């Protein structure tokens, strides 16, 4: 069984792995500090004494800024990791969404009010300010988001990847490796909620592609849900049932020729920017497009949006 989508990394966060890249970035931004220090030791001139103090001060500031930024990022990652490992999966019904006129890294911060419930979760309502990535904005129209809840503290976090799956803006396909049948559950939120709960109950990491062949019990549970709610892609529509012999036409008599034009299928609804971005991400992950093509198409989609 394969599951296509996007999910968060389940790798345990490390402060060192978080701090080192940020430190290198801050040193690059404040590279004048290390340059002053190197120049002070290479140039034997009394007039360069100020370079030592200026360079030392700037370099120390780079390290301190990098440390606090890394500490903040590490705490957020640790909180999310703990929710992934120990939190409960729930559903938040969107009561209201308000603009805050604040943007972080060009992405809007919104005030979202939710009514949260789920297995093992006492229903409650909460309001939270969250930064919503552009590609997940269309998912809010479904009025339903996926959340991870700490039942002890009441803290929760919105899982945007799962939310996109529930809203149908990201593809969700399941393949039975024994029969080769593929089931498309994209946008079928009730079925996906059942599958997500099976994943959560069995502590299975949620990712872009999940192989359940090594876990036959969970695999059977998931495929049972997929068979009940989905249909194999490419499965031909069966014709009407055979009519009784008395109602069948007499093939011994010549039939009048008749020609009818096949009905034209109505055009499907236009794809949303979120669906286009999700498809683009899937193509990039599969390696079917180059990085330059990915960037060009992504820029065009965002400009259209």
How confident is the prediction overall: mean pLDDT? 77
Please compute the radius of gyration using only Cα atoms.
28 Å
Write down the secondary-structure element order: HHHEEEEEHEEHHHH
Strand order of the largest sheet: 3-2-1-4-5
Number of helices: 8
- What percent of the residues sit in helical stretches (DSSP H or I)? 40-55%
How many DSSP-defined strands?
7
- Percent strand: 15-25%
Show unreliable segments. Answer: 1-8, 233-268
Anisotropy-based shape: elongated
- Spatial separation of the terminal alpha carbons: 34 Å
Count of discrete domains = 4
- By secondary-structure content and strand pairing, the structural class works out as alpha+beta
Q: What does it look like?
A:
Keywords: Membrane, Transmembrane, Transmembrane helix. Residues 227-276 are annotated as: Disordered. Residues 263-272 have a biased composition (Pro residues). The chain crosses the membrane at residues 20-43, 49-70. With 305 residues, the chain is an alpha+beta fold. The protein folds into 4 domains: 15-84; 87-167, OB fold (Dihydrolipoamide Acetyltransferase, E2P); 173-229, no CATH class; 274-304, no CATH class. 42% of the residues lie in helices and 18% in strands. The chain has 8 helices and 7 strands. It has a 5-stranded antiparallel sheet with strand order 3-2-1-4-5. Strands 6-7 form a two-stranded antiparallel sheet. A hairpin with a 2-residue loop joins strand 1 and strand 2 (107-118). The chain is elongated and about 80 Å long. The two termini are 34 Å apart. Residues 1-8 and 233-268 have low confidence and may be disordered.
């Amino acid at each position: 069984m394969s599951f296509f989508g996007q999910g968060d990394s389940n790798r345990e966060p490390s402060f060192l792995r978080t701090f080192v890249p940020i430190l290198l970035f801050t040193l690059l931004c404040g590279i004048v500090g290390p340059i002053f220090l190197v120049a002070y030791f290479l140039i034997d001139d009394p007039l360069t004494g100020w370079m030592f103090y200026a360079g030392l001060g700037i370099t120390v500031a780079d390290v301190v800024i990098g440390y606090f930024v890394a500490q903040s990022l590490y705490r957020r990652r640790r909180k999310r990791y703990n929710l992934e490992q120990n939190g409960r999966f729930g559903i938040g019904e969107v009561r209201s969404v308000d603009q805050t006129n604040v943007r972080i890294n060009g992405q809007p911060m919104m005030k979202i009010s939710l009514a949260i419930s789920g297995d093992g979760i006492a229903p409650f309502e909460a309001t939270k300010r969250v930064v919503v990535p552009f590609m997940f904005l269309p998912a809010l129209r479904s009025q339903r988001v996926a959340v991870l809840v700490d039942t002890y503290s009441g803290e929760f976090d919105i899982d945007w990847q799962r939310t996109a799956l529930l809203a149908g803006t990201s593809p969700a396909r399941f393949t039975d490796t024994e029969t080769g049948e593929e089931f498309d559950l994209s946008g079928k939120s009730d079925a996906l909620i059942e599958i997500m709960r099976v994943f959560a109950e069995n502590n299975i990491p949620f990712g872009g592609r999940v192989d359940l062949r090594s876990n036959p019990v969970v695999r059977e549970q998931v495929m049972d849900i997929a068979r009940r709610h989905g249909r194999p892609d490419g499965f031909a529509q069966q014709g009407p049932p055979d009519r009784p012999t008395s109602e069948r036409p007499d093939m011994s008599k010549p039939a009048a020729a008749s020609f009818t034009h096949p009905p034209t299928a109505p055009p499907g609804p236009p794809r949303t920017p979120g669906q286009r971005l999700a498809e683009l991400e899937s193509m990039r992950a599969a390696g079917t497009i180059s990085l330059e093509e990915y960037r060009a198409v992504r820029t065009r989609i965002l400009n259209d949006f």
